[in-house]
Amino acid sequence: xxxxxxxxxxxxxxxxxxxxxxxxxxxxxxxxxxxxxxxxxxxxxxxxxxxxxxxxxxxxxxxxxxxxxxxxxxxxxxxxxxxxxxxxxxxxxxxxxxxxxxxxxxxxxxxxxxxxxxxxxxxxxxxxxxxxxxxxxxxxxxxxxxxxxxxxxxxxxxxxxxxxxxxxxxxxxxxxxxxxxxxxxxxxxxxxxxxxxxxxxxxxxxxxxxxxxxx
Length: 215
Hints:
mainly alpha
């Protein structure tokens, strides 16, 4: 006689799926989901590749533009340098022409002035042009004051300045002699008075040392 409990348990065991097996239709759904994910990944990869290619092309184009700008700037630099050099040459030429014109005007004025001199004035002018301080004496004087050796150009300059200074003193001494109602030749008193007047007008620097006391 059959046992009803055993029959019920056997039917339940027969209706349960075996271990490790999937329910019907679950394998097909998983495969479809995997294919969709693979397709989506492939699409994203293609989009990424397309974007990367676009950025690379943009960088290459930017580099080409910069290179073209650099070449254009390099091509313009020689033109600018040539223009600047041409401008400097024109300025130097204009200065030279202007200086030459001024020199010619000065020479013409001097010729007119000399032609109007009297015989005595002309003799004095000739003596003034011929006179000069000995450069060796000027050089010794400069070296004794400064304590250093000087070049020949400095000696020539100081000799010319000394000549101009002596000429101013002599001219002032002649005015003093005339105002005093006396006649040349000049005497030491005339020279001393001329130096005093020039100092009073500030045309001769004071050579005396003044001690400055700070309070």
